[in-house]
Amino acid sequence: MGNEKGLVRVASRYSMEETLQRLESAFAEKGLQIFARVDHSGEAEKVGLKMRPTKLLIFGSPKGGTPLMVAAPGLAIDLPMKTLLEEENGRVWVTYNSPEYLQARHNIPAELIKNLAGAGPLMKKAVE
Questions:
Q1: Which of 18, 49, 96, 102 could bridge to 44 as Cys pair (CB 3.0-4.6 Å)?
Q2: Are 32 and 60 in contact (CB under 8 A)?
Q3: Which pLDDT score is estimated for 5?
Q4: Under a CB-based contact definition with an 8 Å cutoff, are residues 29 and 36 in contact?
Q5: d(CA 20, CA 54)
Q6: Cβ partners under 8 Å of residue 5, min gap 6
Q7: 46 neighbors 12 (Cβ within 8 angstroms)
Q8: Is the pLDDT of residue 3 over 70?
Q9: Residue range 57-69: average pLDDT?
């Protein structure tokens, strides 16, 4: 696990597809909505370019995110939340913004950071 420039990177024990399914299930169990799935490597392949398997999940909760964006409107550039899945040397990595980074970047009131803080542990548990 790493934390560099506000990013948390966690190794998954599972394949890309299983990691994706496990994350989506974990989000659904907590009432989080999947807003979009972006298959970066799949789209690259469609135009004749190659890149390692890379997918992005965009997820969140209007109930949790709206109060944050009301308090810190610039946070809308980083919400909904995102998690990047990438395969590197046969291993799948899950990367996301740390809540502390987002709090500092957007000056989020301390009492609201809890609205973001639960996603990280949820993702870590899903891939361990």
A1: 49
A2: yes
A3: 86
A4: no
A5: 11
A6: 101
A7: no
A8: no
A9: 95
Q: Which residues contact 60 (CB under 8 A, 6 or more apart)?
A: 32, 33, 35, 79, 80, 81
* Structural domains in the chain plus CATH codes: 2-123 (3.30.310.70)
pLDDT tens for 9-32 read: 999 999 999 999 999 999 999 999
Question: For the chain, what is the mean pLDDT?
Answer: 94
How would residue 2 be classed by pLDDT, with cut points 50, 70 and 90? Answer: low
Looking at residue 13, the DSSP 8-state letter turns out to be: S
CB atoms within 10 A of CB 128: 11
For the chain, helix (H) and strand (E) counts, in that order, are: 6, 6
Q: Average pLDDT in the 61-76 region? A: 95
Alpha-carbon distance of 88 to 53, in angstroms, equals 8
